Amino acid sequence: MRIGIIGSGMRIPTDRQIRALHKRFAPTLDAFDLVYTHCRIVCELAEQLLASRKHDLDVELVRAGSLVHDIGVYRLYDSSGKLEQRDYVRHGLLGHELLRDLGFQESLCRFCSCHTGMGLSREDVVRQRLPLPVNDYLAESDEERLVMYADKFHSKTTPPTFISAATYVSGVRQFGRDKVDRFADLMEQFGEPDLSSLASGYGHAIV
Q1: How many domains does the chain have?
Q2: pLDDT, average across residues 56-77
Q3: Over the chain, what is the mean pLDDT?
Q4: For residue 5, is pLDDT > 80?
């Protein structure tokens, strides 16, 4: 069962409704192309991983969560259309608040606030002096963990790139051994995606 743009007791927004949300909040066409394309790619990665193993995950929720997870990025564009990188870590919380204020259920909003890195604990927020309320921003359900994991394999850099598992591990190591271990656990649970066909289709390099 699916819902309209404002929740009405049903469950999950359609792809078309989510695309309309992106169009509504994107400040420019370039911002829409960057963020929405990334969300589509994360969705394709998540679905590829789901297809490779037996599971009992809510596929519709994974798809919707993938497509909305970065919607808060639009709130970080300034009046000139430039993406403010300094407070980029806030984009997840901003997305959660945006969807919550539109009336969406918490289980969808959490895909925004709980996908950054390998999850942010309150200890991470304090230690790294992050511009976030001190709290845990950690994926809890398997659906949340899958979207968080799939997100690690693509980056909205200029130009956008696909990220190999080895490259991601080398970068996340600086944030602690626990992050590396968490990524390894997710790779064991969900497998490693085949990036080659997606990279060819989107024209994005693999690094």
Answers
A1: 1
A2: 97
A3: 94
A4: no
Q: For residue 69, what are its two tokens?
A: 């997870």
Residue 205, pLDDT > 70, answer yes
Q: Where in the sequence is the domain holding 89, given as residue range(s)? A: 2-206
Asked if residue 173 lies in contact with residue 179, where contact means CB atoms within 8 angstroms, the answer is yes
Under 8 Å between Cβ of 150 and 192: no
Choose among 94, 147, 88: nearest CA to 118.
147
What digits encode the pLDDT tens for the residues 90-118? 999 999 999 999 999 999 999 999 999 99
3-state SS track over 12-29: EECHHHHHHHHHHHCCCH
Q: Can you point out the beta strands (E) in the chain? A: 2-3, 12-13, 154-155, 161-162, 205-206
Contact between residue 57 and residue 103 where contact means Cβ atoms under 8 Å apart: no
Q: Where are the alpha helices (DSSP H) in 69-121?
A: 91-101, 106-113
Q: Give Cβ neighbours of residue 138 (< 8 Å, ≥ 6 apart).
A: 114, 119, 120, 121
- Return the SS3 of 86: coil
Q: CA–CA distance from 135 to each of 6, 89, 145, 169, 187 (Å)?
A: 27, 14, 18, 25, 26
CATH number of the domain bearing residue 95 = 1.10.3210
Residue 113 in contact with residue 93, Cβ under 8 Å?
A: yes
